[in-house]
Amino acid sequence: MSRVLLVAGGNPSDWPTIEPATYDYFVGIDRGCLHLLEADLPLQLAVGDFDSLSREEYHFVQETAETLIQAPAEKDDTDTQLALQEALQRFPQAEMTIIGATGGRIDHLLANLWLPFEPRFQGVLRQIRLCDRQNSIQYYAPGSYIVPKEPDKEYLAYCCLTPVENLTLRRSKYLLTNQDVPYPTSYASNEFIEEAAAFSFDAGMIAVIQSKDK
Question: Which residues form the Thiamin pyrophosphokinase thiamin-binding domain (predicted)?
Fold first, then answer.
């Protein structure tokens, strides 16, 4: 599976460790374009209204990006929504890792966390991954899953983003069996007891978060 890195405008100090060779394509989102270039990473696609850049910064991005898509400042989508849509059109089967999307303004954070609820992204929610220095977030539709432990993470959380039916948690420190969850709930601070955990559920949507302390 191809891997695409999408870089939003959050502070690079909150980025996870990036191994450039593990990604096939790099997308900058608004000010994230400048962050990519300052980190000596490729800028293959630039997307945004670029209202967070000065004129000089915008010209630098414009001259450097392989492809640039300029959006109007007044629009229905956020820059991140537009960038994800463009990336999926180019690489419909790829894993989409989004960084720079979890700090700063809470309205932007919520828009990013709720991306998989949009009808256009629901069919690819398993391909969407949000990451920062402390956390990685992946999304799940009903089914049965194995969750491999990320080497640098300590904690495991099952966040029910909707009401969930028949949630079962296995192969972790804290367990559940056929639990109905009537409202959004975060089963936080669980832990791996081996190199992978397992869970299943019959209805709803769950975000699995692996995290660590600073």
Answer: 143-207
